[in-house]
Every structure is written in C-alpha cells, then in structure tokens.
C-alpha cells in the first residue's frame, strides 16, 4: 500500500525536524545512560549491565511510537485526499444558527445546498453555498444530494421530516422508473438534534426504507466550536443502513465484540449479524457514504463517540440539559459583572451567556423530548433543598450550643 512507504519517508520540509528529533533522542539516550550509571551501586557492577536492555527497550518503543504517528499522519492525509477526490453533495435543512455553523465547515469538503423557512440567500452566497427556499423541496432534492443533514429545531423536526417524505418518495419513484430499481437509493438522512431517541424514532417511522439513517449529536455549537472542532465530542449512531435497522445496544459496529476476525460485522434489530462486505452494491455504497460523511467530522478533529440514542439521552439529561437549566436559572436572576468578579463568577457569567445565546425553542426541546429531563429538574430541586437544609441544621446547632443567633440575622429561608 502506498501509505506505508509514504509513512516512513520524511514529510516535505521535515529534514530539520527529524534532525532535531534525532538530536533529542540522542540526548535522551545519553541522559538515561548517565542516570543508570549513577544509580548502579559501585557504578561498575553487572547490575548496571542488566539494566541496559530496559533503557534500550524504551528507546526502541519510542522509535516505534514515532514511526506509528508518522504512519497515522500519512493515513490521515490519504483519507483526506480520498474524501476530496469524491466529494459529497450535502444538503442542509434549517439554515439557522447551527445550520450555518456546520455548513461553513462542510463547504471545505463538498458542495453544499441549504434550505430554510427564512430567506438566507445573502448569508449562503457569502459562504459560497447554494440556498433553495424550503417551499421548493423538489428543487432542493433535484440538487442530487448524497446526504441531507436536518438541522431544524427539535420542536419542528417531525413536521420537517413529514414535509420532506412525499418529495423523497417522488424522487425515488422517478429514479426507479429510469433504471434498475434494485439499486435505487435515496439520500443518507442525518439529524443533529440535541435529543436522540425522538429523532431516531421519527426517522425510522417516517423515512422511506431507501434512505439510510444516521443519528448524530455534535456536542458543541457556534460558541464552543468557534475556534475549531478539535477534541470536541461527536456522538453518532448508525441507525439504518441499506434497509437494515441496526441494534442500538451493539453500538453500531462491533463494540460488544472483541473478536478481531469479526471487526466489520454489525447486528440488526432481529439479532442477525451482517458483514460490511455483504455482496450488494447498495450495501457497499451505504457503508461508503456514511463513512465519508463521518470522515468530515474526524478530519476536523472531533472525538468520535459511537453511542445508542438511548444512552445519549440518559447522559445528556445529566450533563447538557442540566448545564442549560443552570444557565437559564442563573440568567433569570439577572446576574451581571461586578468590579470585583472572581474567576468562578466569570465562569458563571460565561455559562449564562453561552446557554442563553441558544434559542428558547432549543431549551424547550431538550426538556420536552428527553424523557430523562424531568427527573433532572426534580433531582436539582431536591439537591437545592438538601443544601439549604444543611445550612438550617448548622444554624440550629449553633443555637442549641448556646451561641446566640440573632433571630433577625437568621439567614436560612424557613421551609
Ligand atoms: P433552533 O432554534 O433549535 O433551530 C433553528 C432552526 O430551526 C432554524 O434553521 C429555523 O429555520 C428552523 N425552524 C424552526 N422552526 C421551524 C419550523 N416550524 N419549520 C421549519 N424550520 C423551522 O436553533 P439552532 O441552534 O440553529 O439548532 C438547530 C438544531 O441543531 C437543533 O435541532 C439543535 O438541537 C441542534 N444543535 C444545536 C446546537 C447548538 O449549539 N446550537 C448544537 C448541537 C445541535 P429558519 O431560521 O429558516 O426560521
């Protein structure tokens, strides 16, 4: 494979770097030898000789580590050129705050067509992407989209999918009329909703079987991702590929399966194991397309997290939802900067700013469509009571000890 030879040669302009690295290694080796010599009792015994292989081993491992990271860099370069050699045409439905944020990055990798209720022609033009009004979904689909990313609000997601379906069916029918119906495929439909079980169910219930489904949640947005996506979590579940609905708990490919011979197998909801090499053009195409789309996020440096929609929602209620809830609660207290802000308070203000920058529709969607969110609110309430009770108990104890507590100065709100 081209990658291995590429990997072991120096990258262009890398000779000075590799010279520096070699120098550094030589220095490190020298340091270890010196250290060993100084640690060896008597400084000339056979103990010193016995320790030498360990130091040599470390050096060897470091060299292998460096070679592997070169190999990884080269594979990533190859991967990037593979994506760019066959770029996807990606449609984005919902060109609001988040839709614009992702479309900007997608445009580095492929042709982007966006659609939305509001007229975003100017913003789209400024970004070099094409805008089609939401009222003309036939024109949107006529753009020959490989992938459609639905980035509308959580609240409008179901109605958006409902309105898309007849147009998809019309397109599929037209394709089937033109040729071999066995390989007629619709676009891959991807959602980016901050709640996953709802999105998964709606898409499985409504989308035609010819459309593959990928559920995703980028755990970042225009604020947290404004300096790039590197290291930010990207949660995804390959939900349906080539008409096979994948078993959510199997975490798509092989997560419960450590057998390396079976690395590219997955289980459907009927418990049947499928190979990604299944001999069907449609199947290979489905896998390839989803991988090319996921590669965009990988290339941007996201931390890729395969996870079932159910697990996502359970985790998100106690992480993302509680963050938004606290931000909203603190925001409604009307907090503002003082001349003596601590770093902690600056973080609080930042939390308020970032959570209230998102629409209230988004917050309401997090609450309404995550079955765990009400529990989170109830737990927060009881945690607040618990903490206040502790203050009360301490105040009572002080009183009982005879320490006079001025009743006018009793702080704790009576329950
Ligand atoms: P949002 O308020 O949740 O959604 C705004 C988008 O929804 C706009 O594109 C808007 O279109 C569209 N929309 C609203 N009501 C609609 C309706 N009845 N019919 C059709 N379209 C409608 O704000 P957002 O921040 O842009 O989020 C979009 C999606 O991304 C949400 O599902 C959210 O969960 C997800 N997400 C957001 C973030 C984030 O940090 N903001 C992060 C990860 C995922 P118009 O602008 O044309 O009116």
TrEMBL record:
GO terms for biological process: tyrosine biosynthetic process. InterPro entries: NAD(P)-bd_dom_sf, P5C_Rdtase_cat_N, Prephen_DH, TYRAAT1/2, TYRAAT2_C. It comes from the Eukaryota. It holds the Pfam family TYRAAT1_C. Transmembrane segments: none annotated. Keywords: Oxidoreductase. GO terms for molecular function: arogenate dehydrogenase (NADP+) activity; prephenate dehydrogenase (NAD+) activity; prephenate dehydrogenase (NADP+) activity. SUPFAM superfamilies: NAD(P)-binding Rossmann-fold domains (SSF51735). Residues 1-52, 396-415 are annotated as: Disordered. PANTHER family: AROGENATE DEHYDROGENASE 2, CHLOROPLASTIC (PTHR43207:SF4), AROGENATE DEHYDROGENASE-RELATED (PTHR43207). This is Dehydrogenase. It comes from Seminavis robusta.
